[in-house]
Write a structure and sequence with these properties.
It contains two helices and no strands. It has 53 residues and is mainly α. The chain is rod-shaped and about 35 Å long. This is RCG53670.
Length: 53
């Protein structure tokens, strides 16, 4: 697996929820953002690998 590295703590939905305990609904929009960030980072990572090869 290319992406066997554990995700950074910023991607844990639990921490996002702990930042704003007064807004319990804030967990819903954070999940798509994490997925988008993960996908963007993976695409850039693959692009860098292809460029190096």
């Amino acid at each position: 697996m290319l992406f066997s590295l554990p995700p950074p703590p910023l991607w844990i939905p639990g921490q996002e929820g702990n930042r704003s305990p007064l807004q319990p609904h804030s967990k819903d929009p954070t999940l798509p953002e994490c997925v988008c960030v993960c996908v963007c980072l993976e695409i850039s990572f693959v692009a860098i690998l292809v460029h190096l090869i």
